[in-house]
Amino acid sequence: MTFDFICPWCLIGKRNLDNALWQFAAARPDVSVQVRWRGAQLLSHLPSEGVPFKEFYVQRLGSESAVRARQAQVLAAARLAGMDLALDRIEVMPNTANAHRLLAGAMDKGSTGQLDNLLERVFAAHFQLGVNIGRQDVLLSLAESCGYDPEPLKALLRDDAAPYFGLHAESASFGVPGFLINGRLAQVGAQPVDWLLAALHGAVEDRQAAMEQRA
Predict the structure, then answer these.
(1) Is the peptide bond before 94 cis (omega within 30 degrees of 0)?
(2) Separation of alpha carbons 86 and 56, rounded Å
(3) Whole-angstrom Cα distance, residue 35 to residue 180?
(4) Start and end of every DSBA-like thioredoxin domain (predicted)?
């Protein structure tokens, strides 16, 4: 799944994916699903300290009424996914380059559960606590709270606001949230649970059909 930490639709998409994976595991315990997270920085031009959140969205959408309408849409979608977001707490639109570097660096340093916990905590820090996730001390503290040694991760972070490209530089071109199934882009956008569940079942059926053709 391609994502950025500042995109609420990515968090909503992740929650729906989690739900779909739970249902899929119950229906097909014989099939193992591996989820890979591909970071895609949306606003690479932001300074390392970020910019005022409210001013950013007023400039982006044109008016405060447009911002309120967009946020109402996001909050409603989040509630349907079982979450409450605290957009009113967010003061800074952060530069997410270091957050992506942190997560990428953590991928081979802990368990799958630790990685998912770190992903969740970075999302929560931004969307529920209103913390500036562009700050190195914040990121390293979150990593440590998930059981990671912060020292090797600290060496991956930068102070120059250099853009994050990561191992999958093409991910940004897919759009976020983007769902890639069996290596191919299946859909972009915060898809509902039913669609994701059907896509997982369809991917298994496609793979089984391909194996039968080769047999």
Answers:
(1) no
(2) 17
(3) 10
(4) 3-200
Q: Could you give the count of Cα atoms lying within 13 Å of 56 in the half-sphere of its Cβ?
A: 15
Are 136 and 155 within 8 A, CB to CB?
no
Cβ neighbours for 105, distance < 8 A, ≥ 6 positions apart:
152, 153, 156
Provide the whole-model pTM: 0.92
**Rg from Cα positions in the chain:** 18
Which residues make Cβ contacts (< 8 Å) with residue 203, sequence separation at least 6?
A: 181, 182
Give the domain ranges of the chain: 1-42+175-215
Contact assessment for residue 56 and residue 95, using Cβ atoms and an 8 Å cutoff:
no
d(CA 13, CA 196): 10
Tokens 């992903």 belong to which residue? 119
Q: In this structure, are residues 87 and 173 in contact, taking their beta carbons and an 8 Å threshold?
A: no
Model confidence over 63-95: pLDDT tens digits?
Answer: 999 999 999 999 999 999 999 999 999 999 999
**Dist CA 96 CA 62 (whole Å):** 24
Strand partners for 51: 93
> If we measure between CA atoms, which residue out of 89, 98, 91 comes closest to residue 162?
98
Report residue 189 as tokens: 């956008």
